[in-house]
Design goal:
526 residues; Methylamine Dehydrogenase, Chain H; Recoverin, domain 1; 2 domains; four-stranded antiparallel sheet; globular
Amino acid sequence: MKCGAQESKTIMIKRQTQLLIQLFAFISSLIPPTMAEQSAEWNRFRGPHGSGVATGCQPPVRIGKDCEAWRVPVPQGLSSPILSQNRIFLTATNSGELVTLAFDKKSGKELWRRAAPVRASEKVHQAGSQAASTALVDKQSVIVYFGSYGLLCYDHDGNELWNKEIPTPKTLYGMATSPIGFEKLVIMVFDDDRNLPDSKLSCSKVVAFDKETGEEVWQTVRPFSRSGWSTPIIWNHKDGADLVVLGDGRLNAYDPSTGEGKWFATGFSRETIAVPVANRDHVFASSSRRGGDGDEDTNPKPFWDSILPFDENKNGRIERSEMKPPFTFPFRPELPLGHPGFGFPMPENPQKREERVDWILSWFDKDKDRAWSEEEFIKGFKNKPGKPLLMAVRPGGSGDVTSTHSTWSANKNIPEIPSPLLHEDIIYLIRAGGVLAATNANDGKLIYRNRISSLGGQCTASPVGANGHLYLVASHGVISVVATGKEFKEIHSYDLGEESETTPAIDQNSLYIRTQKHLIAFRKSK
């Protein structure tokens, strides 16, 4: 009897243990990844899972000189800082070299820098950089990508572990996608404007490499995608894990272990830059209309106002004789005249430039008087190709899920470059001009839309969040701190003193920002 009783007791304990394990697994499945993995480091572009959210961290809220721990000079580049243990890593261009740098978190001291092997330089947009891709780091290695070379892997002391030379994709602006990790893999998207041999299909592809050796593990072609600038994410949901890639016109999902295609959703524009975000129930992806328009129906008046400085004789018209450099058709009226991203690209050759100006003039000069009136411009203004889109897709589909698994979509308040940030069922979107929109993640309805006056102009940095606050950085170098929640509330703003176009990084008590010339640490005192 005693033996039987003991056996029954053992069986009961085993059953209770199994129930507890199942209960824990069930509860864990309900917790978003950013909450379930509080200890995750800021080890890739936009931190854990590409979410931009640092759960459990408390960086300072009132950013300023009082909490500036250090400020150190860095070479130019558009990659964002990433963090691992006591180190910070980033990439840069320096005197024609492509370099990877490591800094000490506590002091900002540069620990080492390594140059990539020399190869033909990638052609990039005037506003871009050959060091635009953010590194990937784990406890053993740091992996960087340069479009001009390929992948390089170092240990944390700067010793090269392997390198992988990769042909440079042909793109409109230069490569900007960043590597991500999945288990023992490094995954990269190489979207390309070149065609496959004897085909009109693209030679774009997504490739997984062995993290320890750099050897290719799998490769999947993306024949309907042209150049894109988004970085993929791993979406963990109730049915498993998807590798989600936003590209030209489509959101695609693959099996991250094998590269096998799973599903896709359409409706996105040619210009895909933002990183998708996700919770257990949905993945959310966004793209503006090509040229940066964030609303489906664009107001042409700001575009007209942006070229009025060319009206030299102040007669309210833009005459052909007034269309002198840096005149062009405006794409992004919030940018200053002469900025490389302001308008339609113009040839450097004077004759070809004049020919292009004549062509642009013809768009609105319907009465053939060699001038634009405001009435002509506004009446003839047309939205650029595609439409702005924010889409929510639920898991479980296969093939084209646009109509079957898209829970909702929105066509207003969509940023061109910054990625969305998801926090507690609210999606935050920061647009050029400092327009912040909060959208309900469950139904896509607008909660609020507010213009932050200190953030006027271009915004290229993606928002990051921690401890109930959003950190928003404008390209002209002002950071605004806004409380999360259903009501807009700006807490603080601060001028960094120089331009900043990269996404900040966060750890337990610090915010790290790369400006045009410096890497800065703002730290909350313990």
